[in-house]
Sequence to fold (846 residues):
Amino acid sequence: MIIEKRAAGLPAFVTDYLGMALALAGLIVYFGIKADNFFTVTTFRMIANQIPDITIIAVGMTFVLIIAGIDLSVGSVMALAGAVLGVCLVRFSLPLPAAIAVCLAVGIVCGLANGFVVIRWRLPAFIVTLGMLEIARGGAYLVTDSRTVYIGGPVEVITDMSILGLSLPFIIAVVIVVMGQVVLSCTVFGRYLIAIGTNEEAVRLSGIDPAPLKLGVFVLCGFLTSVAAVIHTARMSSASPNAGYGLELQAIAAVVIGGTSLMGGRGSVVSSFFGVLIIAVLGTGLAQIGAQEPTKRLITGCVIVAAVILDHYRHRIRKGGGTKRI
Amino acid sequence: MTPAKNKTLLKASGINKSFPGVQALSGVDFDLREGEVHALVGENGAGKSTLAWIIAGVETADSPEGQAGGMSLDGQAYRPGGRADAEADGVRVVMQELHLVANLTVAENIFIERMPSRFGFVDYEKLNRAAREIMKKVGLGAVEPSVAVRYLGVGQQQMVEIAAGLSWRCRILVLDEPTASLTDNEIKLLFAQIRKLKDEGVGVIYISHRIEEVIDIADRVTVLRDGKVIATRSTSELSLNDIIRMMVGRDLEHEQLRHGGEAGEVALSVVGLTLGDKVKDVTFEVRRGEIFGFAGLMGSGRTETMRAVFGADRADSGEIYLGGGREPVKIRKPRDAVRNGIALLTEDRKEQGLLLRLAVRANISLVRLCDVSRFGWINMSRERSVAGRYVDALSVRCSSTEQTVGELSGGNQQKVVIAKWLYRDSAVLIFDEPTRGIDVGAKFEIYHMLGDLAEKGKAVIVISSDLKELMAVCDRIGVMSAGRLVATFDRGEWSEEKIMAAAFSEYVTTRPGSKRSLCE
Fold:
């Protein structure tokens, strides 16, 4: 009946991330030895420039998965929000802050629509956001007349800014990761989300209305997607209606590698960030040792499955069979 | 009574078993004779199921140091490597939890491991014929063997599970809490089958919380406490109280449960509550400092009434008044109820009451997170100290407030639910089957908690299917029958007969032909 306290040792937050950090370090060391030019500032700067948009989307996705939802529309919504940004800047010549505001509003509206339909009619988020995936992609083509909108200067200011050698987008992404983790583990909102993902009916019967909280999560995911859209557009200097193709699956993969459960109730934003880093390092490293695209995808796929299997065992060990009835 | 000269079927000595952090069994000796029913009793977590599972090959005992302990069957060393091994030796177990495949038929479930077939196709005629024979024995004669199991009530499903166990020719049959959801009639049929098995020389290991049953059916009783054998005695030497005393290690006989204190002003008043045909025009009131019980048969609408009061289901009509107010309060969602000081402790605590994968701390603070937070920011040390306070006050047995609730025993899980609502400080507390699946010792602790709550001026409502329990703890008992509140008795006015008569009343007058449905 009485389960002895687990051997304490390191604080929980260190052990939680230790495995991920070791895996990442292992990859870096491996590619550092294998590839001649991997262990250089250029490589790391390249990775840092690549990942801000997917990192930000992965944060939103982590929240959605924690409440046992899913958002398949993030890639398309990013394209739509980016397209609106481009059109506002080029066709309507709006100043950058105004254009960004419109762009963010698009993301929020898409998230609101997703959340509203899921909650109001109690539909599976998988189907609803699959619908939004098509809607937003279609919207992106309509807005841009199916052509890439070249923006150039007005939007490049975002990527040009840097602090201590780190680009602004990368800093924004890291700040969002930290804030996301803090919200999740230190605030009432975060606690409610974990509780909803664990047992929504118990939460409802505890006198907490899950609907507005869940809506908030979908809106948050939409909002973060549009933030990613601004950064992505700035990096490309243009808005393409094809942007973010397949991004939803990359984001889910990163989050899952980080150990967030698709069944809800368990997850960590920082771990998702590690997931993004692992995928990015793997992709860059494999490219540098001469792997072609097919090989890269094959190996990335194996890593995703392996990560989930590892996570399964990690949790078995942690639980230690304590739930067994005796 | 089986003569003692019968030869020993199974002998186990010095059995040890530990799970991480728990010594489930230590040095347990046990033996089973031919044609004997040997009961295992003890509180939850005492090790009954573990011992039974080891005998049935579901679990393996820790290897004894220097061959000190082990099991023998018919004098031969017996060391099943798995359930299949044990079954090959004629040892079968019917588990406590249902293991039926809901979409398969009753017959298919009974014969799932050996479907009669011809050229790879199931021979349904033969299957159903064989199933019907077995089903008749356990009183399922009225059920078609070709009906999918999911259409049966829980009690009937349990009988199917038992039928599947009985259908095998075996030498030892282990029944783990077989009667948990059976009606009296079904229990009688089960006992008749057990007695028949005894006559055939089968040894039966019988695990149950219901001591009356054990005294009725068992030849010998082994009492376990904290993984150790307290005693093995012939049933004829023991009384109910002897067994309970051995189980909990103290005497519970003359505990005065309710002193009948002064009831205060009306705390909750429900008028004309109606919800479909489940709840019909229910009107009652509960005063502060009072424990009001709801008796009735399964499905009489007690749970539905309370869910409607709490806003978990939306009532069609009816008004709810709180604290003697003249204006009815609007309760559309559980949130409204909680804000108005009503708490509902649901019947199914795992599915509806607890966050099993989260810590004790998070479960307790959930209903009042704003109290341990500032500007939306949770103060972890405050949260921990609040949880610790309630854990101590209710003596929840857990390693720390960080322990996952899913790891606790049933009684301690229930205490966590109670702690959570105590923390919310609700004025009206509704308990739906608060002691279901809880061992005797913890039950009494919970009865005392109910009494304390009433003494503190709370209005307490208790739904229970255990009449003795209601009569022990309540000041007044309302009886529901077919969705109506048909009678209310004050303490002293009631008797078991009166309450049962009221519980059946609506069924007799409104649905004369539907007596069978009562058994489900």
Remarks:
- Chain B touches chain A through 51 residues (CB under 8 Å).
- Confidence is low (pLDDT under 50) at residues 251-255, 509-520 of chain B.
- The first strand of chain B starts at residue 8 and ends at 19.
- The longest helix of chain B spans residues 184-199.
